[in-house]
Amino acid sequence: MTLPAASRIAAQDLLDFIDASPSPWHAVQTCEARLQAAGFRCLDEAERWQLAPGDCCYVVRGGSSIIAFMVGQKSAADLGLRLIGAHTDSPGLRIKPRPAEDAQGMARLGVEIYGGPILATFADRDLSLAGRVTVRTADGFATRLMRFTEPMLRLPNLAIHMNREVNENGLKFNKQTELPLLLGVSQDGATADERFRQPIAEALGVEAGDLLTWELNAYDTQKGSFWGVDREFIADSQLDNLASCHAALSALLATENPDATCLCAFFDHEEVGSESAAGAGGSFVADVIQRLAASAGLDAEDQRRMLAQSFFISADMAHAWHPNFPAAYEPCHRVLVNAGPVIKSNANQRYSTNAETAARFMAICEKAGVPCQQYAHRTDLGCGSTIGPIVAARLGIASVDIGSPMWAMHSIRESAGVLDHHYMTAALTAAFAD
After folding, report:
1. 2 falls in which pLDDT band (50, 70, 90)?
2. pTM here?
């Protein structure tokens, strides 16, 4: 299989993006760096905004959600908005507020399960810590991002000699007693809490007693890679859903002087229901849109006109057909890796797609010169959901759910296609010009 050089370059840039973003807070920081390099201006929600056609800006909420936009050259009341949404969070293990405990000479860290990860995939991986920490300062406290690049933690498997039926019954962990991560050997005179705090304090250049609170997750330190006989696939953590964030951001940065106002909205907390101030169920995107409308001088009537002509693309990942498990898929809806973006439909509104919005995205793909596919879940299996129905309901705008096909969704090591990421970026670029 011969792949265009541009597709490989885009896939490598995606892997670099993910590897720089081991937590939602780092993902936003990575987005900020790329936006700033492109000349985007950072806005503060607590200050007044003054916007004009052609302005390129972004705003962050909660440190883990970000909305970037380009103000269109023409009135939003006449053309509506072009929105693409994705999410910055991924399922995994989060460190508890007081995690450290001594266990018969070993220091280990208690964890909470965030979202719906495939827990077995966290075993025997080179794990480390990433996230944000609040530290005491002379003025109160400050928040610092932090990551350890070298492996610090591990979840070792129990030997098969003590778990003889693991290959028949599957690898299972008791969520309370068997998931704590091993940190190190207990030392004389040092508690497990001190063993946990000291490297963090040293990394941040503060005293251990000045560490106040943290939001940290365990992440896989192995970098993303290409694989397959022709290196036509990629593997990395957090493809769900940093691949969609990267494609949407790349599309926005490739857009120049659009007629319609274009927005990328990347939310935290999708994996746990989106109901937070920084989540898609909160007011973030509606607040930004209202301020855009106010800056343009749109009255209530024109704001309604704007929303009626807007289009929202909810970009999340899709389930690729797995040849080893054909019975898991709906016949006639077996989407293939490296065969193009997937339109996701569900009659019970787990996805926001309807016939008209699906047709509109098909036209966008045709315009971009990329193939597209359609997916529906097996009727006898519960279907996951996305931010699509949430945002569409809150804003009252037309919406479609789409995504790139992938394998092993919610594993710590997911896989997808090199061509698909390039296809998705091209389709989203065309959507901003639609």
Report:
1. confident
2. 0.97
Q: What is the CATH number of the domain that holds 421?
A: 3.40.630.10
Instruction: State both tokens at 259.
Output: 């007629």
Q: 249 with 264: CB under 8 angstroms? A: yes
Question: The domain containing residue 312 runs over which residues?
Answer: 5-90+237-432
Tokens (6 digits) for 360: 């509109």
Query: Final residue of a domain: which of 185, 220, 255?
Result: 220
Report the distance separating Cα 139 and Cα 141, nearest Å. Answer: 6
Same domain, 276 and 409: yes
Burial track 36-64 (b if 16+ CB lie within 10 A, e otherwise):
eeeebeebeeeeeeebebebbbbbbbbbb
Residue type, 323: P
Residue indicated by tokens 């080893």: 324
With beta carbons less than 8 A apart as the criterion, state whether 19 and 236 touch.
yes
Average pLDDT over residues 56-62: 98
Q: Flag whether 231 is in a domain.
A: no
Q: Pick from 142, 279, 120, 304: which is nearest to 213 by CA?
A: 142
**Among residues 220, 255, 270, which one ends one of the domains?**
220
For 64-78, the pLDDT digits (tens) are: 999 999 999 999 999
Tokens coding 422:
């390039």
Instruction: With respect to residue 228, please indicate whether it lies within any of the assigned structural domains.
Output: no
Report pLDDT digits (tens) over 161-202: 999 999 999 999 999 999 999 999 988 778 999 999 999 999
**Which pLDDT band holds residue 310 (cuts at 50, 70, 90)?**
very high
Backbone angles phi, psi at 377, to 5 degrees: -80, 155
Residues 72 and 146 in one domain: no
**pLDDT at residue number 186:** 82
Question: How are beta strands 261-267 and 211-220 bridged, if at all?
Answer: unpaired
Residue 341 lies in a domain: yes
